Structure formats: C-alpha cells, structure tokens
Amino acid sequence: MPYSIRVTKFTERQWRPPITELLNSFADSGPQLRLAVARAVESVRSNRNVVVVPQTSEQFEKALRRYRAMSDKSWSLTDCASFLIMEVEAIRAALTHDRHFEQAGFQTILC
Questions:
Q1: Are residues 78 and 94 in the same domain?
Q2: How far apart are CA 39 and CA 34, in angstroms?
Q3: pLDDT at res. 8
Q4: What DSSP string runs through the chain?
Q5: pLDDT tens, residue order, the chain (111 aa)
Q6: Does residue 43 sit in the same domain as residue 61?
Q7: Is the pTM of this model over 0.85?
C-alpha cells in the first residue's frame, strides 16, 4: 500500500553511520555511480533541514554491546547504532525498507 505523507516543515535527523554504509555499498560500482552517490550525500549534508548526527565513542561502545547481545540477529553495527539513536530521540519510524528495523520494533516507511 503506498503512503502519502504531507510535510509542511521538518528537520530530518540523519545518522552518520548509515551515510557511510551507503557510500561503502557503492565502492565497487564504478566511477559514475560513486560520483552520483557522493553528490547525493553532499546535497543532503548541505540541506539546512537535515541534521547529520556524528557518532561519539560512547555511542559506538553502546552499539557494539547491542551488536554482541543480538548475535542471533543479522543486524549490522550500523543498525544497532541507529536503533540506539532512534530510542534516545524517541523516533518510531525510519525511512527504510530494512526489515531489521521492524525486528527491532520500529515502523518502516518504505516497502
């Protein structure tokens, strides 16, 4: 079922590790795709409605503990870090199709 979302004013919080994961996933995709993805990330980072949240050492340690504790799941370290930030920020939905977010109890907006 398609979603219709009307947004009049927003500030999106983007977590730095997923940006890194996105760029990493295009590492072997050739120069054109690499440049396109890099431009897209630069565009997101320069948007004043987007806040890119850096990862602290403490957040990394907490994510690593969750990663270790959830060894029965196929969650990445980036997933675990994202879940922790979403919990702290009381964010209940993610703009993703990643089923791991549903497994962790979050709503996914993309299908």
A1: yes
A2: 9
A3: 38
A4: -------SS--EEEEHHHHHHHHHHTTTS-HHHHHHHHHHHHHHHH-TTEEEEPPPHHHHHHHHHHHHHTTTS---HHHHHHHHHHHHTT--EES---HHHHHTT-EES--
A5: 343 333 334 455 666 778 888 888 889 999 999 999 999 989 988 888 888 878 889 999 999 999 999 999 999 999 999 999 889 989 898 878 889 999 999 999 875
A6: no
A7: no
Beta-strand relationship, 93-94 and 107-108? parallel
Phi, psi of 37 (to 5 degrees): -65, -40
pLDDT for 4 equals 36
- Residue 28 phi/psi, 5-degree rounding, is -105, 25
What is the span of the domain harbouring residue 82? 57-111
Asked if residue 65 and residue 50 are part of one domain, the reply reads no
Are residues 83 and 48 part of one domain? no
Structural domain total, the chain: 2
Per the structure block, which two tokens stand in for 109?
A: 């907006």
Look at residue 33 and tell me if it is in a domain.
yes
